[in-house]
Amino acid sequence: MCNGGHERVEWMERTKPDEAAAAGPSARSSTVTNRAMTSFSPADEEKRRGVRRMKSMAAGLLLLVALVYALATWARDAGAGPWAGYVAAAAEAGMVGALADWFAVTALFRHPLGLPIPHTAIIPNKKDQLGVSLGEFVGENFLSGEVVRQRLHAVGIAARLGTWLAEPEHADRVTAELATALRGALTVLRDSDVQAVVGEAITRRADAQEIAPPLGKMLEKVVADGGHKRVVDLVCVRAHDWLVLHDDQVMAAVQGGAPGWTPRFVDKKVGERVYRELLRFVTEMRDSPTHPARGALDRFLADFASDLQSDTDTRARVERLKGEVLGRGEVQDLIASAWTAVRSMIVSAAEDEHSELRLRVRGSLLSLGARMAGEPRTQSKVDKWVEGAAVHVVTTYRKEITSLITDTVAGWDAGHTTRKIEAHIGRDLQFIRINGTVVGSLAGLLIYAVSRALGA
Description:
Keywords: Membrane, Transmembrane, Transmembrane helix
Number of strands: 0
Protein name: DUF445 domain-containing protein
Structural class: mainly alpha
Helix content: over 70%
Low-confidence stretches: 1-36
Mean pLDDT: 82
Organism: Streptomyces lannensis
Number of helices: 21
Transmembrane segments: 57-75
Distance between the termini: 56 Å
Number of domains: 3
Shape: rod-shaped
Region (Disordered): 13-48
């Protein structure tokens, strides 16, 4: 019955891949995992053969002491002499020791002789409890905050990492891995999602904060420092150059605005005069830093900066203008195009080994490695950070980590788990049977000898 059951299990395992192939990728993945849990590797098979050899040796030794006991008993009854009693007592105790240890070893993995004796077949019956106990043991003794902190402190991660990172080839390797991760992250991200997030963040930040007072403070500082004068100089130069090149247009505009009843030559004279005065005004403003118009512009900008900070009506107008600008499609398109350009630039820099980005990252890694390797203060800061992060992880997610052990053990097949464990430790357990036979024989011999001595 037992062999038939194993054959049925093996047949079911052989048929699972075909069923999983029809069921889909998830089923095939589950089947692969299940087959890995219910199969033996070549190394496991070799260990199982070693266990069988040791079982044969232990059983052979038991048969040997049984034969010795039978012969010694026969010799004692035949009057062979006192020695036969000693040999029979030693052999008898050896049999008892061998049988007792056989029972103990067998009870770990199965019911001895197939009899449902209580507290036998411990591993298959207590597999889940053993998994829970193992998880608790690992959690209490390996995942406690103090143990993790002490172990990491003894390792000296900062110094070791710094020494490793200070090597140029290692810095190159880390830089390449970071570049690959960056490219992967930017490839996975969808442009539309990033654009929506960036646009929403900019809009929310702009709506949450009034921009008129900061603009007023900035303009006030620019005017006070004279930073606007270069802009005024540029405007004056460009205005002068434009007037020189477009004199006909200026005079035509002036003549076009004249009344219809005035003579044409009067309109022309007026246009020429207006053009000359306008050109003279712009030229003087361009060439004279102390021109009155420049002073008037300074006062206008200063007053406007003050209004941006204190005038309610001006601030309200700026806020309305801000809302209108942010709501325009052109602004959102600008955000989208900016993100596309930035992403393309970063991807290109990450792919180019000689880009400024990768060179700077490599230099930063080498510098960081040198500081971590040679500066105790930096080492202490990095070690404390690593220790704190590790302690936070193990204390926060200890249950999830230990559940990996308990859930994995709970998912194992009880019969296969028993055979797997027996393959790994069964050979040493058979030595217990052999030692039990030998120790039992010696103990029996000693007890018999002491009894005879006291009896004599």
